[in-house]
C-alpha cells in the first residue's frame, strides 16, 4: 500500500516490528498494554533508524497518529496494532486521537480483549472523558457485540456529540436491535442533537430492514429540511429504504433527483428492481448505466448476472462472462458463483461444470452449494448427492444453506444420515434447515418425525409453520392441520397466502368439514389473502370437490388472474358434477386465450364428454390432444376413452383402443372395462378384464366383486359362488359401503342396514313414511340391482336399507325444511337408489347432492307450491326452496322494506314478497 507523500520520510516505520518479535494474533495471546517495565529493544537497524527519526522530530505524537491513521484508512489493521504496541512499549506518548484510532482498529478486528485493554489505558492516561475516545469506546463495544458495555459507556459519558449518538444508534442497528435504534434516534431529536448525514444513513438502513415505509417518509422529510438530500450516501440509503418497502416509484424519484450518483446508487437501484421482480426495468437501467459511462464494479457485475439469471438471458450472461474474463474481476468468487448459478438456471449444466472445475482451490462452501443446487434445479438429485459427498471429502464443511438444498435430494441421499449430520453441526435449530428437514419427512409420509423436527426449530417463521401445516394437509390429517393453524395464530404469527392455501387444500378431503373450509375462506378474506392466486385456486378446487360448483364458479370468475390449476379445477369440477357442456365451454375459452394445457386438462375434458354422453366430442378432443397439442396420452386418458366407448355400448372399440395403447394397460383401464362389461352383461369380456385386473392387483376386492356381480346379473349363481369362494381363499375382503352426511359441523356415517345411530328408530320411521309416498308417486323397486339369490320381497327390503337412503333420511329429520342435503358414498350409487333419490327430492322439496366414487349427482326438482305458501317463512329457507332471483327492487312509501319478485314455479303465478324481520311477507297479488 502506498502511503501519502507527506509521510515519505517516515518510511522506516513501515518496517517497524513488534519489540517482542512476535506477530499479532488475537487467538493466541493478549498484549499487555499495562506493563510498566519495558523489554530490552531489538538492535535491528530498522528500529534504530526509526528511534533516531523520532528523537530528531519534536512532533512525535502527531507523526505517530499520522502513521496509525494511514494504516487504519488503508485497512492495515494488524500492522496498525503492531505499530501501536511498539510505540506504547517504547514509552512514547499517545494522545486521544491515537487511542481513538486504535479503538477503531480493535473494532474492525472484532477483538474485544485488545479493546478492553485499550479502554484501561484510556482511563490511566486521563482520556476517559475525551468525547472522541468515549465515542470510539461505544463503537468498539457495539461492533464486538458487547451491547451492554457499549450502552453503559454511552450513559457514563458527560459530553456527547452527534457522532456519539450515531455510534450508539449504529451499534444497535448492527446488532439487529432495530427498535432500540429507532428509540435512540427519537431521544436524540428530543435532546436537540442535530443529526448528520451518517445518522440519517444509519436510521434509513434500520427502517429499510424493518420495512417501515411510513416512518421512512417522515425521515425523508427531515433529510430535505436539513439539506442532506444532495449527499450521495443519504440518497443511496433512501433508495434502499423505498425499494425494500416495495415503493419503487418513490425510489425512482429519489434516484432521478440525485445530482451525484455513484456506483452504489446505480447498483442499489438495479438490485432493488430485481428484488421487486421488475426485471425488464432493471435491464433498461443497466443499459442506461453503461451509456452514462459508469464503471462496472464487482457488486454491479454480481447484480447484472443475477438479472440474467432471473430473465434466463443466457446470451447476456455469456457476454458478461466474456467481459469479466478481460479484467481482474474474473478471480472474484462472488462473480464466478453468480455466473455458475446463471448457467444452472438456464439449464446449461455443462458450462456451469466447466466454470466450477477451473475454480480449483478457490472453491468455497458457497460455490459448492451453488453447484449442488444447480443439479437439483435440473432434476439430477443423484449428481447433487455425489457432489455433496465429494464436497465433504475435500474438507469443505456444509453450511445451513447446503443442508437445506441437499435435503430435497431424498431418496438419492440418506435422510436419516443427513439428519444426524445436522444435529452434530447444531443446525437443527436453523429455520431454513429445520423447514427443509421436516419437508423431507413430510414427503416420506412421516409426519410424526416432521413434528419432532418442527419443535426443535428455534425461531419458527411463517415458512416453517406453513410447511408443518402442509404436511398434515397432504396426509389428510385435517385435525393436525387445524391444530397447527390455531397454535400459529396463538403465537402471534401472521398467516400468509401459502398457509391458507395449505389449509383449504386440506379441506378437499371427505373427512374434512365443509363448514371448516368455508370458515377458512372467511379467514382468508379477513386477512386480505383471498385473492392470492394460490388461495383462490385452492378455493375453486375445494368448492368443486365438495359439491358446491356454483361457489367454485363464482370464485373462478372473480379471480384477477388464473393459473392452470384454476382452469383445470373448473373443467374437472363441471365434469364431476355432470355439466359436460359447461366444462367444454371453459376449455374452449382456454383455447381462445392460447393458454397452455396438459394431460390433466384433457382428463377433465374427456371425462365431461363421458358423463354427458358426448361420444363424438370426446373422440374429437382426444385427437386434438394428440395431433394439435402433441400431448402423449397417459393411462388416465385411455381409461376415460375406454369409459366413453363403454357407456356408448361400443365395447369392441374400447378393447381395440386398449390393444393399441403404447404401454400395457393398467388396473384403472381394466377396472373401467370390467364395470362396463357388468352393465352390458358381456361375460366373456368381463372375464378377460377381471383376469388382467386380478393379475395386477390380486388383493383388490373390486375385480372380484364386479365379476361376481356380472355373474349374478346374468343369473349364473354357480360362477358367482366360485368367485366369492376364491375371495375367501385369498383372504380378500370386500369394501363395505358407507355413506356420510355432515350436520352442524359433525359428520355421521351409515352402512347398509345400520341401527347404531341414536336416532335409528326415527330414521327407519322416516324411511317407511317415504316408502309409502314413493309408491304413491309410482315408484317400483328395480330388484335387478340386488345381486343376491333371494326372494324379490327380500330384495326390496335390502334396497330400502342402502346406506345412502339412511343418510338422506337422517338429513331430512335433522335439518330444517328447505336446507340442501349433501351426502358422500365410498361406492357407486345403484340405479334403483338413483331413481329413489330423485323422487325424494321432488316429494320433499329438497335439493339433494350425492357424491359417489364416480361423480356428483344433483337432484333439484321444481316444487309446485300453493299460492302464498312462502309467507312467514325465513328468507334463508325461501332461498333454499327455490332459486331466489331479485327482479325488482323498490322502496315502499309507507314502510321501508325491500321488495322482490319470486318465480314460484312454471305452473303458478308470480307473487311479490317483501322482507320483514328476515321473513317473507306477501305485499301484492300481481
From TrEMBL:
<feature type="repeat" description="PPR">
    <location>
        <begin position="461"/>
        <end position="495"/>
    </location>
</feature>
<dbReference type="InterPro" id="IPR011990">
    <property type="entry name" value="TPR-like_helical_dom_sf"/>
</dbReference>
<dbReference type="Pfam" id="PF01535">
    <property type="entry name" value="PPR"/>
</dbReference>
<dbReference type="InterPro" id="IPR046848">
    <property type="entry name" value="E_motif"/>
</dbReference>
<feature type="repeat" description="PPR">
    <location>
        <begin position="563"/>
        <end position="597"/>
    </location>
</feature>
<dbReference type="InterPro" id="IPR032867">
    <property type="entry name" value="DYW_dom"/>
</dbReference>
<dbReference type="Pfam" id="PF20431">
    <property type="entry name" value="E_motif"/>
</dbReference>
<feature type="repeat" description="PPR">
    <location>
        <begin position="364"/>
        <end position="398"/>
    </location>
</feature>
<dbReference type="Pfam" id="PF20430">
    <property type="entry name" value="Eplus_motif"/>
</dbReference>
<protein>
    <recommendedName>
        <fullName>DYW domain-containing protein</fullName>
    </recommendedName>
</protein>
<dbReference type="InterPro" id="IPR046849">
    <property type="entry name" value="E2_motif"/>
</dbReference>
<feature type="domain" description="DYW">
    <location>
        <begin position="778"/>
        <end position="861"/>
    </location>
</feature>
<feature type="repeat" description="PPR">
    <location>
        <begin position="161"/>
        <end position="195"/>
    </location>
</feature>
<feature type="repeat" description="PPR">
    <location>
        <begin position="262"/>
        <end position="296"/>
    </location>
</feature>
<dbReference type="InterPro" id="IPR046960">
    <property type="entry name" value="PPR_At4g14850-like_plant"/>
</dbReference>
<dbReference type="Pfam" id="PF13041">
    <property type="entry name" value="PPR_2"/>
</dbReference>
<keyword id="KW-0677">Repeat</keyword>
<comment type="similarity">
    <text>Belongs to the PPR family. PCMP-H subfamily.</text>
</comment>
<dbReference type="Pfam" id="PF14432">
    <property type="entry name" value="DYW_deaminase"/>
</dbReference>
<dbReference type="InterPro" id="IPR002885">
    <property type="entry name" value="PPR_rpt"/>
</dbReference>
Amino acid at each position: 500500500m502506498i502511503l501519502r507523500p507527506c509521510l515519505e520520510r517516515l518510511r522506516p516505520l513501515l518496517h517497524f516490528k513488534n519489540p517482542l518479535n512476535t506477530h499479532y494474533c488475537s487467538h493466541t495471546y493478549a498484549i499487555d498494554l499495562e506493563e510498566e517495565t519495558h523489554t530490552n529493544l531489538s538492535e535491528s537497524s530498522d528500529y534504530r533508524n526509526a528511534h533516531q527519526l523520532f528523537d530528531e522530530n519534536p512532533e512525535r505524537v502527531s507523526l505517530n497518529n499520522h502513521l496509525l491513521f494511514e494504516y487504519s484508512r488503508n485497512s492495515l489493521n494488524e500492522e496498525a496494532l503492531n505499530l501501536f504496541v511498539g510505540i506504547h512499549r517504547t514509552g512514547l506518548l499517545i494522545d486521544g486521537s491515537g487511542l481513538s484510532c486504535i479503538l477503531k482498529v480493535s473494532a474492525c478486528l472484532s477483538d474485544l480483549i485488545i479493546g478492553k485493554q485499550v479502554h484501561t489505558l484510556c482511563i490511566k492516561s486521563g482520556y476517559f472523558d475525551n468525547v472522541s475516545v468515549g465515542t470510539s469506546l461505544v463503537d468498539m463495544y457495539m461492533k464486538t457485540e458487547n451491547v451492554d458495555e457499549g450502552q453503559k459507556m454511552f450513559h457514563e459519558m458527560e459530553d456527547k456529540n452527534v457522532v456519539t449518538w450515531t455510534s450508539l444508534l449504529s451499534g444497535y442497528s448492527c446488532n439487529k436491535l432495530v427498535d432500540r435504534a429507532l428509540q435512540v434516534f427519537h431521544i436524540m431529536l428530543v435532546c436537540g442533537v442535530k443529526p448528520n448525514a451518517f445518522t440519517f444513513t444509519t436510521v434509513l438502513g434500520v427502517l429499510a430492514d424493518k420495512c417501515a415505509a411510513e416512518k421512512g417518509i417522515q425521515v425523508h422529510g427531515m433529510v430535505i429540511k436539513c439539506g442532506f438530500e444532495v449527499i450521495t450516501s443519504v440518497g443511496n440509503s433512501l433508495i434502499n429504504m423505498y425499494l425494500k418497502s416495495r415503493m419503487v416509484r418513490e425510489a425512482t424519484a429519489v434516484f432521478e433527483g440525485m445530482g451525484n450518483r455513484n456506483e452504489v446508487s446505480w447498483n442499489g437501484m438495479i438490485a432493488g428492481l430485481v428484488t421487486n421482480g421488475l426485471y425488464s426495468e432493471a435491464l433498461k437501467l443497466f443499459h442506461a448505466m453503461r451509456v452514462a459511462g459508469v464503471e462496472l464494479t464487482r457488486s454491479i457485475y454480481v447484480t447484472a448476472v443475477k438479472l440474467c439469471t432471473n430473465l434466463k438471458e443466457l446470451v447476456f450472461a455469456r457476454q458478461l462472462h466474456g467481459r469479466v474474463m478481460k479484467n481482474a474481476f474474473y478471480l472474484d468468487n462472488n462473480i464466478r458463483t453468480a455466473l455458475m448459478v446463471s448457467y444452472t438456471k438456464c439449464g446449461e449444466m455443462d458450462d456451469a461444470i466447466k466454470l466450477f472445475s477451473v475454480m480449483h482451490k478457490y472453491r468455497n462452501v458457497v460455490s459448492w452449494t451453488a453447484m449442488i443446487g444447480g443439479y437439483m434445479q435440473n432434476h439430477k438429485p443423484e449428481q447433487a448427492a455425489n457432489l455433496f459427498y465429494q464436497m465433504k471429502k475435500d474438507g469443505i464443511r456444509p453450511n445451513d444453506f447446503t443442508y437445506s438444498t441437499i435435503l430435497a435430494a431424498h431418496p438419492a441421499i440418506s435422510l436419516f444420515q443427513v439428519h444426524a449430520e445436522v444435529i452434530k453441526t447444531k443446525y437443527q435449530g436453523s429455520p431454513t434447515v429445520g423447514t427443509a428437514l421436516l419437508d423431507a419427512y413430510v414427503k416420506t409420509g412421516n409426519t410424526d418425525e416432521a413434528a419432532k423436527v418442527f419443535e426443535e426449530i428455534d425461531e419458527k417463521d411463517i415458512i416453517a409453520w406453513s410447511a408443518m401445516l402442509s404436511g398434515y394437509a397432504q396426509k389428510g390429517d385435517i385435525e393436525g392441520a387445524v391444530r397447527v393453524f390455531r397454535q400459529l395464530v396463538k403465537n402471534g404469527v401472521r398467516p400468509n397466502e401459502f398457509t391458507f392455501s395449505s389449509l383449504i387444500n386440506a379441506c378437499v378431503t371427505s373427512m374434512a368439514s365443509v363448514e371448516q373450509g368455508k370458515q377458512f375462506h372467511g379467514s382468508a378474506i379477513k386477512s386480505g389473502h383471498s385473492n392470492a392466486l394460490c388461495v383462490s385456486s385452492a378455493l375453486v378446487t375445494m368448492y368443486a370437490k365438495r359439491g358446491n360448483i356454483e361457489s367454485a364458479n363464482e370464485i373462478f370468475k372473480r379471480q384477477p388472474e388464473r393459473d392452470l390449476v384454476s382452469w383445470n379445477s373448473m373443467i374437472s369440477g363441471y365434469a364431476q358434477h355432470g355439466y359436460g357442456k359447461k366444462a367444454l365451454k371453459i376449455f374452449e375459452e382456454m383455447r381462445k386465450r392460447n393458454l397452455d394445457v396438459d394431460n390433466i386438462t384433457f382428463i377433465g375434458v374427456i371425462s365431461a364428454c363421458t358423463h354427458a354422453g358426448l361420444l363424438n366430442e370426446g373422440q374429437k378432443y382426444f385427437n386434438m390432444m394428440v395431433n394439435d397439442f402433441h400431448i402423449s396420452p397417459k393411462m388416465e386418458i385411455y381409461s376415460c376413452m375406454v369409459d366413453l366407448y363403454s357407456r356408448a355400448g361400443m365395447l369392441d372399440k374400447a378393447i381395440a383402443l386398449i390393444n393399441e395403447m403404447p404401454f400395457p394397460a393398467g388396473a384403472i383401464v381394466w377396472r373401467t372395462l370390467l364395470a362396463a362389461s357388468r352393465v352390458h352383461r358381456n361375460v366373456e369380456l368381463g372375464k378377460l378384464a377381471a383376469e388382467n385386473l386380478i393379475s395386477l392387483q390380486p388383493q383388490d376386492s373390486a375385480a372380484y366383486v364386479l365379476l361376481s356381480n356380472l355373474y349374478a346379473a346374468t343369473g349364473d349363481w354357480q360362477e358367482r359362488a366360485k368367485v366369492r369362494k376364491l375371495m375367501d381363499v385369498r383372504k380378500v375382503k370386500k369394501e363395505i359401503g358407507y355413506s356420510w352426511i355432515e350436520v352442524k359441523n359433525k359428520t355421521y356415517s351409515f352402512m347398509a342396514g345400520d341401527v347404531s345411530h341414536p336416532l335409528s328408530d326415527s330414521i327407519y320411521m322416516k324411511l317407511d313414511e317415504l316408502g309409502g309416498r314413493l309408491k304413491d308417486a309410482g315408484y317400483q323397486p328395480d330388484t335387478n340391482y340386488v345381486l343376491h339369490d333371494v326372494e324379490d320381497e327380500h330384495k326390496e327390503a335390502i334396497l330400502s336399507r342402502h346406506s345412502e337412503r339412511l343418510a338422506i333420511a337422517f338429513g331430512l329429520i335433522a335439518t330444517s325444511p328447505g336446507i340442501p342435503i349433501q351426502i358422500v358414498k365410498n361406492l357407486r350409487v345403484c340405479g334403483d337408489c338413483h331413481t329413489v333419490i330423485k323422487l325424494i327430492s321432488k316429494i320433499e322439496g329438497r335439493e339433494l347432492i350425492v357424491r359417489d366414487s364416480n361423480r356428483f349427482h344433483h337432484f333439484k326438482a321444481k316444487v309446485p307450491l300453493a299460492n302464498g305458501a312462502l309467507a312467514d317463512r325465513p328468507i334463508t329457507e325461501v332461498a333454499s326452496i327455490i332459486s331466489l332471483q331479485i327482479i325488482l327492487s323498490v322502496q315502499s312509501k309507507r314502510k321501508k322494506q325491500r321488495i322482490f319478485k319470486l318465480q314460484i314455479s312454471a305452473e303458478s303465478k308470480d307473487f311479490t314478497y317483501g322482507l320483514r324481520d328476515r321473513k317473507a311477507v306477501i305485499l301484492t297479488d300481481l
